[in-house]
Amino acid sequence: MQREIKIPVNASNIVSEGYAYGILRCIERVEVSSEKKPLIEMEELKKTARMLEEKIKREYGSSDVLGEIGEVHIMILNDPLLWDELEKKARDKGGKLSLKDIMDVRDYIISLLLESGNPLIQERQYDIKDLFNALLSGAVHSEISNGDIVYVDELYPSDVVVFHNSGVGAILSKKGSPTAHASILAQALEIPYIYGIPPLDEYCDMRVFVDAVHGEIRINPSNIEGIKALIKKYEAEKQNLEKYSKMRFEGIKVMANIGFLQEIDVAKKKGADGIGLFRTEFLFLNRTRPPSEDEQFLAYKKVLEAFFPDRVIIRLLDVGGDKPVSYLKLPEESNPFLGVRGIRALMKNEEILKTQLRALIRASAYGNLGILIPMISKPEEVVYVKKLIKKISESVESHGNFAVGIMVEVPSVIFSIEKFVQQIDFASIGTNDLTQYIFAADRMNPEVSEYYNDQDDAVLAAIKIVAEKMRESKKPVGICGELAGKREMISKLMSFGVTSFSVAPAKVPRIKKAVYEALKET
Amino acid sequence: MIMADTNKIVKKIVVTNPEGLHARPAGKLVKLLSGVKSSVTIKYKDKEINAKSVLSIMALGINPGEEIEVIIEGEDVESALKIVEGVVCAEGN
To answer: In chain A, which residues touch B (CB < 8 A)?
Structure first.
C-alpha cells in the first residue's frame, strides 16, 4: 500500500463544491503540429467553423448557462474582426493560410483582449484558445473514463462539456478564476472544481480523493470506506437542500460573500438573505487608473437594488503591499500583512477613500447598505472614517440611511471591543485573518499550517468576547471567514450570540440547514 | 448632440450600464445588432471599431461612466440607435 499524501488547498480557490474519489488523469493538450496541415484553404476553414457552430449548438444547447456560453462562442466564430484578420493573411497567399498565420491571428486577438485592462475580458482568452483548438484539431482529449479526476493546466469551456459527458468526478487546474466561463460551466453542471493546484505530475494515474468542500487533495487515501460513506452522505443531502435555501430564520441570517457583480444571480438563487461581504477589489485591481465615482456608484447601486430590502454589506477597498496597485501610494514593506493595508492604506490615499465613500453614500438611496471598514485596529480609525462620512453625506444631494461597521480581524479590537461598540452599527468577524494574527501563522505558508486553526479555542474565545459585547448593545455581529462555512461549528457560534453567517453563494443552503437544525435543538 | 441627415446618426452616449461594455453587455449588443442592416461604429478615445464585432468591443474595455460616440449609417438607423442605447444605458439585467 502506498503512502497517503495530503495536499492542502486554499478553500477560496474552490469554484464548484463537492467530493470525488477516482484515478487522477493528467491531461496534456495535443499540440497541433504544422507538418500535419501544411496549408489550409480559407474556404476549408470557413467550413470547419460552420461545422463547429453546429456542434456547439448540439452540445451546449441543453441548459441556460450552457446555451449562453455556446452563444458567445458562436458569436466569436462569426466575428468580423477575426475573419478580416484571416482574410488579410490569406490575401497574400492566394487564399491559403499556414498554421502560423492562424496562430498569429489567434495571438493578436488575445493580445487585444489582454490590453483591455479588464480581468473579465482578459479571461475570454481561454474561450479564444478553446475555439482555435477546436478549429484546428477537433478532439483534444485522450481516454477519460467515468469517475476520473482530471488535472489540466488551463481549463477551457469545451473541456467542461466533454468532461461532463464522460462523467468526470472532479476537475483540478493550475490556472483559473471563479468568473471564467469554464468555472461557470463547472458550477452549472455541478462538477467539483478547484483551481490554483500546483502540478501533480508525480501522481498521475494514482488514486486520489478530492475534497472540494473544505479544500484538500489526498493522494493514495487510506480510509477508502470512510471516503465512500462521506461522498454518499453528501450526495444524499444534496438532493433535499433546495427546501433549506428558501428558509428564513428569526434573528439569524445566512448571507453571501461575493466579489463580482456576476455573482449576484447565483447568490440570489441559492437563497442568500443579503450580502454579508461584497469585496470591492474587483473595481480597483488590474488597472492603471482608479475607478471613477460613477463607475463605483453604478456597481454598488446594482447590488443594493438586487437584494433590497435585505442588507448588502460593502467593504471598502482592502489591499496592502502584497497586491500592488499602481495608482495607490503604498510603501515597500518586508511584511505587508503587518503593514499598510485596509483602512491604513486608505488613510494614506484619502482621495481614493473619499471617492469610494461618496459613491457608496449616493448608492445608499437604492437599498439597505452597510459600509464595512477593513483592518481596523484602533478606535481613532473609526472616528476618522465616520467624520469623513458625515462631511460627504452633507454634500450629497440625496441619500438613504446606511449602517457603518468594522471588520474584526486584528486582535487589538477584541481586547478593547467596548471602545468600538458605541461607535459602530455592526461588526463582521473575519476569521481567516483573525486566526492568522492570533497564531502569528501565515495561512498560505504550508510550513506553519499546523498552527493555523480557525476552530481552535483561542479563536472561539475571541469570537465570544465580541459577540457578547455586541449582544449587550443589541447590535448585529456576523462571521464572514471560512469558519462561517463549517457546518459543525454553526450551533456553537450561534450560542455565542453570532447573528449572521456569510459564506460563498454555493454554501448558503447547507449553512441554512445547519442553522435550521441548531434552532430545532434549542 | 444628434446630427441626422436621412440615414446617418452621430451621437455621444455615456455608458451607464453597471458592467460597462465588458464581456456580457458586448455580447448582448452584437446579438441584437445582428438583425440590423446599418453599419454601426463605436468611437472611443482614439479608436474606431465595428460594433458588430464582439471581440472589437471587448478589446476597448469600456468602463461605466465613460463616453463613447456612435456613428450609424444605413437604412434602419433609428432602430439601430435604440438597440445601442438600450444596452449602453441599461441599468443592468
So the answer is: 71-72, 75-76, 79-82, 109, 112-113, 115-118, 120-121, 123-124, 261-262, 291-295, 298-299, 301-302, 305-306
Q: What amino acid is encoded at A446 in this protein?
A: P
- Name the pTM for this structure: 0.76
Mean pLDDT of chain B: 90
- Domain boundary pick from A238, A260, A282: A238
Structural domain total, chain B: 1
B56 close to A (CB below 8 A): yes
Contacts of A116 in chain B (CB under 8 A): 58-61
Report the alpha-carbon distance of residue A174 to residue A177 in Å, rounded.
Answer: 10
**How far is B47 from chain A, CA to nearest CA, in Å?**
12
CB contact under 8 A, B55 and A79: yes
- The CA distance from B56 to the nearest CA of chain A, in Å, is 7
Statement: residue A273 has pLDDT above 50: yes
- ipTM associated with this complex: 0.89
> What CATH number corresponds to the domain at position A125?
1.10.274.10
Q: Which residue of B has its CA nearest to A297?
A: B18
C-alpha cell at A257: 460573500
Q: State the pLDDT confidence band at A478, using cuts at 50, 70 and 90.
A: very high
Q: Please compute the mean of the pLDDT values over residues A303-325 and round it to a whole number.
A: 92
Active-site hit among B8, B11, B22, B43: B22
User: What would the grid cell of residue B93 be?
Assistant: 439585467
Q: Are residues A337 and A364 in the same domain?
A: yes
Strand locations in A83-133 (E): 96-98
Task: Indicate whether A152 belongs to any domain.
Answer: yes
Q: Which chain B residue's Cα is nearest to A180? A: B23
Cα-only R_g, chain A: 25
Tell me which residue of A73, A53, A160, A200 sits closest to A124, measured CA to CA. Answer: A73
Contact B54 A75 (CB under 8 A): yes
Task: Say whether residue B39 is in contact with chain A using an 8 A CB cutoff.
Answer: no
User: Measured at the alpha carbon of residue A99, what is the angle toward residues A142 and A157, in degrees to the nearest 5?
Assistant: 45
**In the annotation, is B22 catalytic?**
yes
A61 CB-contact burial (10 Å; exposed 0-12 / middle 13-18 / buried 19+): exposed
Dist. CA A265–CA A436, nearest whole Å: 32
Domain that holds residue A220: 5-29+140-238
The answer to whether the beta carbons of residues A437 and A341 sit under 8 Å apart is no
pLDDT in tens, A64-87: 778 888 888 999 999 999 999 999
| Among candidates A112, A291, A299 on the partner chain, residue whose Cβ is nearest the Cβ of B55 | A112
pLDDT of residue A37: 61
